[in-house]
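Why do we bother with a discrete structure alphabet at all? Because it lets us treat a fold like text: something you can write down, compare, and reason about line by line. To make this less abstract, here is a complete entry for Acyl carrier protein. Read it the way you would read a sentence in a foreign language you are learning: slowly, and without expecting to understand everything at once.
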Amino acid sequence: MESKEIISITNKFLVEEFEAEPGLITPEANLKATLDLDSLDYIDMVVVIEDRFGFKVKPEDFQAIVTFQDFYDYVTTRVKQKELV
């Protein structure tokens, strides 16, 4: 799966699941602030990621994610790791 496809899928579910304004989702924007996420929202996001991309998310992985680009990079890396197995 290519990075562009991952970003497209990710943005689509962020808009659908978290009612995010598409124009506010930019690579440099702060993920938590833009989506107004609380701890339950993170759990919802983990469930959606695992369902859509087929890999398990470790809670500690989210500590390093600040921007949407960080999020895209994380998902892309994990998808590529899964594809190698």
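What the structure line is telling us, in plain words: The chain has one domain: 3-84. The chain has four helices and no strands.
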